[in-house]
Amino acid sequence: MSSVAPPLPSSGFKDDKRDNVTYFESSDPADLTSYTSGTEMEAKLLQKIDWRLMPILWVMYIFNYIDRTNIGNAKIGGMDAELGPSSEKYALALSIFFIGYLLNEVPSNMVLSRTRPSLFLPGIMFIWGAMTVAVVGVHNWAGLTALRFFLGFVEAGFFPGVIFLLSCWYKPSELSQRLAIFYSAAIIAGAFGGLLAGAITEYVSTPTIPGWKWLFIIEGLATCVLAVVSVFILPDYPATTRWLTPEERELAVARLVREESGTSLGHMQAFVAACKDWRTWAFSFAYQMIAGAGTISYFLPTITKTLGYSGRDAQFMTVPIYVFAAIVSNVVAWSADRKDERAYHIVASCFGGMAAFIVCAAVSNPIVRYVMICFGAAGIWSALPIFLSYVSSTIGEPAEKRAVVVAMVNGLGNLASVYGSQIWPDYDKPLYHIGFSTTTAMIFTAGVVILGIRLYVGRPDKQRAANVTSDIASDKPVQV
Fold this sequence. Notes:
Blueprint: E1 13-16, E2 21-24, H1 30-33, H2 40-83, H3 87-112, H4 117-133, H5 141-155, H6 158-167, H7 172-203, H8 211-231, H9 246-257, H10 267-276, H11 278-294, H12 300-306, H13 311-316, H14 319-339, H15 343-362, H16 366-394, H17 399-413, H18 416-420, H19 433-457, H20 460-473, E3 478-479
Helix pairs in contact: 2-7, 2-8, 3-5, 3-6, 3-17, 4-5, 4-6, 4-8, 6-17, 7-8, 7-14, 7-16, 10-17, 11-16, 11-17, 11-19, 14-16, 15-16, 15-19
């Protein structure tokens, strides 16, 4: 953990206490323009950053995703029977989460961009863990729906906050694979969550607390413990991190300075700049389509149940879907980083998922549908992390605007989950023609929009690099 900001590595650093932002002002522009990518020292630094940053964020996201989606496992583990079966009330409990999420997403990221991630992210994690445990006091759908709203409100700052933090440590060309690794935590959480839920709901219960409530209690308490531990592990920003040597801090800053301009914006300026940029709205719409297709994750236990499995087996049969998606997602992300190309990888993932869901909507054979669900899920979860990397690298600077855009895209995109959770009604089972057809249309639309953005804007990273070099040569301060 980074506590009080350490002595900065050179006189080139300037710490602005008013905004909690560090800038680099070089008296010799050659200090930055002479930076050479791909050196042995940079490779060692990158490895050090990876081992310090990625494992803890990966584990944190596993618990974030489990706490958000365990309602699907609880539904077939006894919750539906106790609260009263109702697909409409269940869909409302899912949807209301994303309304709270949307309301607080942009404000959370605006706060994060001016504060310390090592305290902010664990802080909200502890709160949502405690709220997950509070499900033990829920006795009806109204109470569960209210709790889900506030859970969404608190969790809103985590995912976009992590995306912003990673963009402050890694160059755009390094983000896709790391975001895929990070996002694979959600996929693994889906697999692990199914196994854990099956075991807890089957074997853990007391006369006063049923197994489905123990699912929330155990997972919520584990989240709170991890939140406390992460305070001592998470770093803040490259220029204010103690576990880097002065030389490593300089290199960590210099390699990112080449990616940034010298502009710094206040909260309202950043918000206005994000709203005026048409790419914000185009990306938000595309993400709505991908996230809408991704709502299938809340219904996978229910869908596998209609394929002939029941109880614990229905939960366990979600595991291969997530494992296959994790493998495909990381391979696609590796290719995107290796080729330094993201848009066409997103488009290919979307169209591949679309083809799989067309088959799901057209056939009734349970084996064929299960296999195609695996391919369709892989398409969705391959597109998501690369998409977020594409947004972050396209909206590269200034950092405050990037933070707001990422939050807006993620928040507005998740609006799809409000209506996406309504496309799998009980009356449409077992074939779920409405769900699979709508998912097909959504992921196809996302692919078309991303293709259009790519063809229109080209590769903006090259122009951004030219702007940064100009800033450095003119001695403008560069935010890090």
